[in-house]
Amino acid sequence: MIALLGIALAKPVFADENALFYPSRSDWSDSRGKTNLSVFVFNDTNGNGIFDVRDRALADIATGLSKDRTPLSVVRTNISGFANYPTSVSQKSVTISEIGNYDFEVFIPPGWRITTQNQVQQREIELAAGSISGLGMAEMLHPVGLEQIKFIRGTYGLPNAGQLELWQNGSLISEAQLSVGEEFLFPVAPGAYQLISENTRRAVRVGSLPVDIGTFNRLSRTSVSGQNIDFEALAPYRLQKLPNGYNNLNWFNLNVIRASVGDVGYVNGATSGSNVLYTSSGLPASISANTNFDFVQANLSVAWPQAEGEQIILSFYRGEALVLQDKIGLSAYGPISYQPFLPNITRIELSTAHNWQAVLDDIVVNIAH
Fold first, then answer.
1. What is the average per-residue pLDDT within 101-116?
2. 57 to each of 14, 83, 124, 296, 299, how far by Cα in Å?
């Protein structure tokens, strides 16, 4: 009985005539297809030089390929973080069609630095008979991590010129003598800080993003906490106009989109989950409430690389009175944490200087009930 069972199992499950539909390859000498050799670039949010679960792919990062020090091609990463170099031994129109020594390089955008110490990766492309492309290499390229350089930025808005001091853990870190309306920027590491000038002080917390506090003045609270709005419960069909009443706020001309559906700035601007908010058609938008609320912070970017350096203009109202107006510089490659800590407002008007779509994520507000 055992022998018969062994014989039965050794036989093909299907009749022999069906084997022509499922042939096993016997000749591995030919390679007529193509594959991609890919450089993967990610936002190293904790700066540890490892691609881990909190990190995100970076889109539109320029990478370069050279052979024997001769530049061959520049390819930008797609929305999944891959810069793809088509490879084939049989199709000569591809980027890589010959064996040899190649350098794969990542061109670091302004305001970023590399964390993985592999800006240039050298690989020998070898023949790989029978593979799809006919070419391969002994070791795949390693992920390349970039992180944003951290700083605290803002505009000095006290009535008179004065000295602005940056403190951390009871120690003076830096200081600057500033005129009214003058911008300041302090390079920092992640951590908790205080900005102090005259009798005015502001708490600032720097995490994985650089920070712009907007205008340093006496309107802001020393510090404030609130409810984080991340928009992840919306856009079941990838795009949705944000309805009034969502999180007890009224929203005008603001859409929620799944970041992977949009362009570079939507992907790079997402700081939690997969959804972001943007100003529809780049035209003015607003956030308001039927009662006073505190606007604590938001992560801001711009949707398109062609608008690198665009400014978002945020006008804060209490009733019909304009309380404050800030202009914040935007990037499509990574957001900035805007932290105005502004209390008791009823409406925010949002616009951009040149009508490009502003991208927002993780808005923190404190709404009175």
1. 98
2. 45, 11, 26, 27, 17
